[in-house]
Amino acid sequence: MKKVEIWHNPRCTKSRETLELLKARKLELEVVPYLEEPPSAARLDEVLRLLGVEPRELMRKKEAPYRDLHLDDERRTRKELIQAMVEHPILIERPLVIAGKRAALGRPPERVLQIL
Predict the structure, then answer these.
(1) List 2, 5, 9, 12, catalytic entry
(2) Catalytic annotation on 98?
């Protein structure tokens, strides 16, 4: 059985629901408290590629750092956006689930079942 990684925020309802969904399937889980342990830029880039999305598509645009850092500026590079997410992990949409070479955003939580 492959290990399943979840980038989890215990204060988020969807994140808690997704974690419970995974636990109910008795999977080997690695729960990553990404707000306290942000991913590296390389890891975040890898996960974005697994998801098949660009950084802004995974950003929480209503968070203060998004506005304060002017991340909506189209001149921002992919590298700059990823670095902003590393430095301000609150910008990363959650929960993210990675299983092998596949990843999914748990919105809705059942979406992650497609990658298991």
Answers:
(1) 12
(2) no
